[in-house]
Amino acid sequence: MVSVNQERTPRKRTYLMSPPEHFAVEYAINPWMDTETPVDAGLALKQWEGLRETLAGLGHTVHVLPAEPGLPDMVYAANGAFVVDGVAYGARFRHEQRAAEATAHRAFYESGDWGFVAPSETNEGEGDFAYLPRAYGGLILAGYGFRTEPAAHAEAQEVLNRPAVSLRLVDPRFYHLDTALAALDDQRITYFPGAFSVASQKVLAQLFPDAVLADEVDAFAFGLNLVSDGRNVVLNSESTGLAGKLEAAGYTPVLVELGELKKGGGSVKCCVAELRP
């Protein structure tokens, strides 16, 4: 067990976000989306700005990718690529409604100092990939079952030169890995076991015996869809139980309200891509 008094060290991060200027629930491609439920666009933008200001206030750099008309889900910037050591492994979306987002993200990376690699396999970026640079020498955790194909895990491993561990998601409410698992620092994770197959649960328990386990209540509140700098953990304000567990493990919970963006099936992490130079 981790001592409550253990000192956690934050590390400055660089993030990419895209404002919800065109955000709406115009179709349903995950169980959380309901086209009959109205979206308050103004409130969504206000909550997004609050998240961006929170991250900047913690000392992190936040780049903004302009929103594009006709792409209501572009606010979920984590899905556009997966970046490790300056190399961006691009996304190839499962659903045609989001396909053009990949082009916008590719343009961002190719206009900068990033090595962009176009994917051959279907994957949705950091939605289904997590990276722990100090776990086992640098480890990719990769989800599949609903959006990303297992073949993309092998492709990411080759592109990024890091071993990838495939984890099967079995509950459609946790359609991306980042709704069920998150990196808390460079070698520790938090996750909800019930989102994964029995075999994947065993793999996670073996690899991460010190993980912080979330319960069903916080998992369904998108509590695991979080962003952490190694000490400060930014998560959905409804996830008070998980916040307590994180605090007991030595982290500092930072609660934010993202109720409008939850209507599209995402929360904090979905809105934030990490750019790892």
From TrEMBL:
EC number: 3.5.3.18
GO molecular function: dimethylargininase activity
EC class of the enzyme, as a word: hydrolase
Keywords (A to Z) from UniProt: Hydrolase
NCBIfam families registered for this protein in UniProt: DiMArgaseDdahMtb (NF045659)
Name of the molecule in the record: Dimethylargininase
Organism encoding this protein: Micromonospora zhanjiangensis
